[in-house]
Fold:
Amino acid sequence: MKKTTSTNFENKVWLDNSCGLSSAFNILSGRWKLNIIWKIKEGANRYSSLRAAIPGITEKVLYERVKELEHDGLIERQDLQLDKPHVDRNFSF
Structure:
């Protein structure tokens, strides 16, 4: 946890609020996030297909990064309302 009273923290907040590129970089800077977005864009839109398409990632990290991308509004989870549980994650702009 960073100190909210430090000059470094204040500079980061100022950059995030004044520069869209800085904000975008902060959102995408987590390890694996760009790989996940790329694979979704290529058509791997189910959790299992993402897992298979990115061989070096662990289940835990994939789950965390997908949740972070979902929270940031970069991907969207869609429930397909099938008999068998199935969740589709699609990339959204």
Remarks:
- The chain has two domains: 1-30, 31-91.
- The chain has five helices and two strands.
- The longest strand covers residues 75-79.
- The mean pLDDT is 82.
